[in-house]
Specification:
This protein is mostly helical and 229 residues long. The protein has three domains: 9-67, Arc Repressor Mutant, subunit A, CATH 1.10.10.10; 69-133; 138-187. Helix content is 65%, strand content 0%. The protein is rod-shaped, with a radius of gyration of 43 Å. The chain starts with 8 loop residues before the first helix and ends in a 15-residue tail after the last helix.
């Protein structure tokens, strides 16, 4: 049996190109170029298969890129929602402390997930899990102690703000800065209820009540010519 004939690559490309561009039958192009018709038919099928795979590959890459962009957009939208939910824990001009970041994650991890919140706050998830695995820091323990007394004083005196609560704690022997009391109250939503100022007199439009203001002192007011009893 004769060995298969080896054709040059340039002849193969020319034959496939003529079949594709001229529309002539494969047998006619093969006969004109001196190629076996079945060999040319195999070449054409291989070329068509390569072109189809290339087109499908390009489509797959576009779909993958579109999916990546959609995921990135979803991550950005989630980060915005996380920052909106966390804004009450800190003021944007102040840096977020580690304890505040832990509080944000604990309160919203069921909604957004730990990893998403850590990305939005620029914190490594390992840092969060490491802090949760260890005992509270000395600062956190002191904050918890001070917060308990702040709540106690505020519950007994709802009208007290940070300054008056701080003064009361100093009177009770606590060594604490006023800014610390303000921070703990702000972080935990504790505010003084100032209420309304007491009304010392009633005023009605069109009624002259100036005399009523002097009535309690009428017995002590001397008029000209009046004898002293």
């Amino acid at each position: 049996m004769a060995a298969p004939r080896k054709y040059p690559d340039e002849l193969r490309r020319r034959a496939v190109r003529e079949v594709a561009t001229t529309g002539l039958p494969i047998a006619q192009v093969a006969r004109r170029l001196g190629v076996h018709p079945e060999t040319l038919r195999v070449w054409v099928r291989q070329e068509e298969g390569d072109a189809g795979r290339a087109a499908r590959g390009a489509g797959t890459e576009e779909k993958a890129e579109l999916g990546r962009l959609r995921r990135k957009l979803a991550d950005l939208e989630r980060a915005i929602e996380i920052l909106k939910a966390a804004h009450r824990y800190f003021r944007f001009e102040d840096p977020l402390s580690p304890d505040e970041a832990i509080a944000v994650i604990d309160d919203h991890k069921n909604r957004f997930g730990v990893d998403a919140i850590c990305r939005a706050l620029d914190i490594a998830p390992s840092t969060y899990y490491a802090r949760k695995a260890h005992q509270p820091s000395a600062r956190q323990q002191r904050d918890d102690l001070l917060l308990a007394h702040i709540r106690r004083i505020h519950q007994a005196n709802p009208g007290h703000g940070a300054r008056r609560i701080w003064q009361q704690m100093r009177r009770e022997g606590f060594t604490v800065a006023r800014c610390t009391v303000e921070r703990l109250m702000r972080q935990n939503g504790i505010k003084g209820d100032l209420g309304r100022r007491p009304v010392t007199g009633m005023h009605h439009p069109g009624v002259d009540n100036r005399g009523s203001l002097l009535r309690p002192y009428a017995g002590s007011v001397r008029t000209p010519g009046q004898d002293t009893p």
